[in-house]
Amino acid sequence: MTEFACPRHGTYQRSEGVPEGVPITCGHCRTTANAEREEARLAFDRQMRVWRRWEASEVPARYQACTVGNWLPQPGQETAARMLQVWADDVRLHWNSGEGLLLMGAPGVGKTHLLAGLTAACIAAGYSARYASWPDVWDRCRPPFEGQHPEALLRDLARIDFLALDEIGVRTGTDKEQARLFELVDARYRDKLPTIVATNATQATLPMIGERTADRLLEACIPIAISGDSNRRRALRAGNARPAIAEPEPRRVTRVLSINGNDVEQSHEINWQNSV
């Protein structure tokens, strides 16, 4: 029986009945290499799932590089910045409590930037999240219907783990629009699903979207007033930063195995085709 020496794991042998021409690999080397490859595959698969949730989040292209961390607060916005970062740093806590955010401020102070960044933070933490502008949602609820059917759209928005709902209160809305908005907010309120809302309204004027809707948002969300004027000229330019969540690059796992007593380097590429 032929015996080989592995510098890492000691001796190993050619089993009886195995022809001389068949290469023999150290069993420990093979087990270690397989474990490392599986670990890399699972890590890549987790990254791909995050990326796919980000692709489905409908964050507008202009805001896909936005994070809570690269928001540029103006003087007087420091407290809001700290509160937002604390919220983003513990998404799981807010998932468990159903506690969302109510961002209030004038146009241009960075509310949509923050909604995009918070959406990315929720997805990176392992949850599904979706951005939606309420005026766009309402337009899609009226004929001629284009794309997803209104009932399916509202059902999806009501069930997503985290919903970032922009432009609440840009108009008072008809009774029917207010009723639809209430249905969405109330469904999420009842199921304790966190909603992150941005509005130009203040706590005093928020009831213009409907008193019952405003009441639920004020109970289920942390109100954060973002003071200041429009900051769009200083705002982050999408072309100047990497996407908040980037598509994972294929990774190569390289391992040295002892084969017939000689160290041989073997590589295996992990990509989206072989990670699932």
Structure, explained:
- With 276 residues, the chain is of the alpha/beta class.
- 38% of the residues lie in helices and 20% in strands.
- It has helices spanning 27-55, 78-89, 91-97, 111-124, 134-140, 150-159, 175-190, 211-220, and strands at 3-6, 10-13, 100-105, 129-133, 162-168, 195-199, 221-226, 251-259, 262-270.
- The strands form 3 sheets. It has a 5-stranded parallel beta sheet with strand order 4-5-6-3-7, with helices on both faces. A two-stranded antiparallel sheet has the order 1-2.
- A hairpin with a 3-residue loop joins strand 1 and strand 2.
- Helix 6 (150-159) runs parallel beside helix 7 (175-190) and helix 7 (175-190) packs parallel to helix 8 (211-220).
- It is elongated, with a radius of gyration of 26 Å.
- The two termini are 40 Å apart.
Give the SSE map.
Elements: E1 3-6, E2 10-13, H1 27-55, H2 78-89, H3 91-97, E3 100-105, H4 111-124, E4 129-133, H5 134-140, H6 150-159, E5 162-168, H7 175-190, E6 195-199, H8 211-220, E7 221-226, E8 251-259, E9 262-270
Parallel strand pairs: 3-6, 3-7, 4-5, 5-6
Antiparallel strand pairs: 1-2, 8-9
Mean pLDDT: 92
Number of helices: 8
Rg calculated over all Cα atoms? 26 Å
What percent of residues are in strands?
Answer: 15-25%
- Report how far apart the termini are: 40 Å
- The unreliable regions are none
Task: Say how many strands there are.
Answer: 9
Reading side by side through the largest sheet, how are the strands ordered?
A: 4-5-6-3-7
- Structural class category: alpha/beta
How much helix, percentage-wise, in residues?
Answer: 25-40%
Most strands sheet:
5 strands, parallel
SSE string, helices as H and strands as E: EEHHHEHEHHEHEHEEE
Overall 3D form:
elongated
